[in-house]
Amino acid sequence: MATTADFRNGLCMEFNGELYTIVQFQHVKPGKGGAFVRTKLKNISTGRVIENTFNSGVKINLARIERRPHQFIYKDETGYNFMHTETFEQISLDSSMIENPLLLKEGINVEIVFHTDTESPISCDLPSFVEMEVAYTEPGLKGDTASSTALKHATLETGLEINVPLFVNQGDIIRVDTRDCTYSERVKK
Q1: How many CB atoms lie within 10 A of CB 111?
Q2: If you ran DSSP here, which 8-state letter would residue 98 be given?
Q3: C-alpha angle 68-47-111 in degrees, rounded to nearest 5
């Protein structure tokens, strides 16, 4: 058991019979009345964000979660298959548990979040950036800019389509931000 004084971003708790993480919180002490905590909570299973207000000092049930290192092996009809990097146990996850499954390529290291009470996987967290090869893009022409941010479409090796600068060519390795699937930089060979 914990109280509202223990709130911090990323804290996982049981609320209304489901697991939620705290995205944002704010302690408020109005001039009149008791203090309270305004929160934004993200449902772990659905990804939906809700707002809730807790009176100060309310007890909450903390959920024990554990992050375990895994490596992506392959995708088949059962889902996305991962191997624990220390015990070599394999697990298969559905695409709904992975935020951006098109950023997975063989050999990439991820963290799978488990609810320790039930030993069930909750989600799969990718690293902040991944390196991908550009499988196809039109050649960029000098002077082909209508605005200061000249971008073109590119298809990556996993089939994901993103916008890249004009100087990126087919076969280049680029770094992609996994949080919003955007181009970050070109990797030097």
Answers
A1: 15
A2: B
A3: 15
pLDDT in 10s for each residue of the chain, 189 residues: 889 889 998 888 999 888 898 989 999 998 888 899 999 998 887 778 999 999 998 999 998 889 899 999 999 998 999 999 999 999 999 888 888 899 999 999 999 989 888 888 888 889 999 999 999 998 876 665 555 568 889 999 999 999 998 888 999 999 999 988 899 999 987
Report the C-alpha dihedral over residues 129, 131, 135, 138, rounded to 10 degrees: 60
Q: Residues 118, 138: one domain?
A: no
Q: Give 28's contacts (C-beta < 8 A, 6+ positions apart).
A: 35, 36, 37, 38
The verdict on 88 and 107 lying in the same domain is: yes
23 vs 41: CA distance, rounded Å: 6
Chosen domain end from 23, 47, 62: 62
Q: Would you say 62 and 1 are in contact if contact means Cβ atoms under 8 Å apart?
A: yes
Query: Domains in the chain: how many in total?
Result: 3
42 and 25 fall within a common domain:
yes
Which residue segment(s) compose the domain that 88 sits in? 65-125
